[in-house]
Design brief:
Strand order of the largest sheet: 1-2
Helix content: 10-25%
Structural class: alpha+beta
Distance between the termini: 27 Å
Oligomer: single chain
Radius of gyration: 13 Å
Number of strands: 2
Length: 50
């Protein structure tokens, strides 16, 4: 799955679950995660602190 906005702390082995309201649409185990460019990561941290 590719997300529009990045997430912190995503790691291989974690479970991802997709919901629509209370209904489970799907589930998968994360096989790998990709890092953002350093500048993008700094911007995300600044915006998350608001």
């Amino acid at each position: 799955m590719r997300l529009h906005d990045g997430l912190f702390g995503v790691a291989p082995g974690q479970t991802m679950v997709l919901y629509q309201g209370t209904r489970v649409l799907g589930q998968s185990t994360i096989a790998r995660a990709y890092s953002l460019a350093r500048e993008d990561l700094d911007d995300l941290r600044e915006n998350a602190a608001v």
